[in-house]
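Structure in, sequence out. Go:
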């Protein structure tokens, strides 16, 4: 006989409530115990009422009393086994395969005994057993048992001359109990599916939270790296210029001015780092405005002319895209100050229908460097150890952007593009 897999010890999807796993386990255990206690009270209560009603009747013929006693005995044994399988895990594996057989015997004997003159209440125990079979077994097996029981009860009723209610009513009770059991099985299956879906949704939410946290940590790391690389690179250039002024010209006044600028740059870099930590989620300023400020600051610090032009119709960009272009401009200006000091710089921001492009170009102070190799090595060499523009390229790649850098007609050109 086919049997249903034993129910789990506790429910599965309470994690969506936000409680700790230990608390959820405790409450789940209490809920299961409460359900088992209620079921036990109902079984024992119904059995006691039926037993008192049947056995307390007077003037019952011995044959009917024998049927009633046998039915009550099987029902009592079935309820004991049923309760043991609910409350003791060790006994469940052993009892579950045989429990449907006892429940089937209980449904059949109580149904037959209900045909006795005082056995009518036993139909209640028969319907309880049949309902359980409807939940525990497949429809084919449970339906076969119900049909066989209904035929047996009707046949015995006809043989012993039971009235119409006994011949038709008690078999109908079995079929109705089976239908109720199937409905209960469907409800439980739906509840289990909902619990599984809820558990899956909770796991997906936790995975999404972990992924978002990791992405945010990576974003913070990139942002701090870019800010510090720009600030420290520019500061290194400024200190080198101050040292050259002191050693080559002996111009103390100019060196002090350069050192004061370096101090301001260090302060600005620290402020920008703190701002990046505080405002990573906030909206970035308008891109054109930010690039214009970068150009003006470079011109003031390094005494190099910077021209900035905007073409197309400006439009808001996503924070990641705007920040990537801003950091690219910062890195390009640091490299310009390092490798082509005091050379004019041209910055151009172009808005088109499908992309936004930034170009930063400066004149090369010496002969044009050789073209890069096939793999592009040498294009992205920078002031901070060769990783600045490479990092910018990775940042742009994350938002489906591109970055190119290299010599072009006596100029060093850095071009970055992001999709609309």
């Amino acid at each position: 006989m086919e049997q249903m897999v034993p129910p789990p010890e506790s429910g599965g999807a309470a994690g969506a409530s936000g409680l700790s796993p230990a608390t959820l386990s405790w409450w789940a255990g209490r809920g299961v115990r409460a359900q088992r206690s209620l079921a036990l009270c109902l079984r024992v209560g119904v059995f006691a009422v039926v037993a008192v009603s049947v056995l307390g009747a007077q003037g019952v013929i011995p044959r009917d009393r024998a049927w009633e006693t046998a039915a009550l005995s099987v029902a009592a044994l079935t309820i004991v086994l049923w309760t043991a399988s609910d409350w003791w895990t060790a006994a469940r594996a052993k009892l579950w395969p045989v429990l449907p057989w006892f429940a089937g015997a209980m449904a059949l004997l109580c149904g037959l005994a209900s045909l006795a003159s005082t056995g009518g209440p036993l139909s209640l125990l028969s319907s309880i057993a049949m309902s359980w079979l409807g939940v525990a077994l497949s429809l084919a097996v449970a339906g076969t048992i119900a049909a066989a029981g209904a035929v047996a009860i009707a046949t015995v009723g006809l043989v012993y001359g039971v009235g119409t209610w006994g011949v038709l009513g008690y078999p109908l009770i079995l079929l109705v109990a089976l239908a109720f059991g199937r409905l209960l099985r469907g409800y439980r299956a739906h509840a289990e599916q909902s619990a599984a879906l809820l558990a899956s949704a909770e796991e997906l939410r936790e995975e999404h939270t972990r992924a978002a946290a990791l992405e945010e940590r990576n974003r913070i790391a990139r942002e701090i790296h870019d800010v510090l690389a720009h600030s420290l690179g520019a500061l290194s250039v400024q200190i080198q210029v101050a040292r050259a002024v002191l050693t080559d010209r002996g111009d103390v006044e100019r060196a002090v001015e350069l050192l004061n600028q370096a101090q301001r740059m260090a302060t600005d870099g620290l402020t920008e780092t703190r701002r990046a930590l505080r405002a990573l989620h906030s909206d970035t300023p308008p891109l054109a405005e930010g690039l214009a400020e970068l150009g003006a600051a470079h011109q003031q610090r390094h005494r190099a002319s910077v021209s900035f032009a905007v073409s197309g119709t400006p439009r808001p960009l996503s924070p990641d895209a705007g920040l990537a272009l801003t950091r690219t401009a910062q890195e390009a200006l640091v490299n310009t100050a390092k490798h082509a000091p005091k050379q004019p710089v041209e910055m151009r921001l172009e808005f088109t229908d499908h992309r936004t492009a930034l170009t930063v170009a400066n004149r090369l102070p010496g002969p044009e460097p050789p073209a890069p190799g096939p793999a592009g090595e040498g294009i992205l060499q920078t002031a901070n150890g060769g990783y600045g523009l490479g990092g910018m390229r990775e940042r742009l790649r994350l938002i489906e952007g591109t970055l190119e850098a290299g010599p072009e007609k006596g100029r060093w050109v850095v071009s970055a593009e992001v999709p609309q």
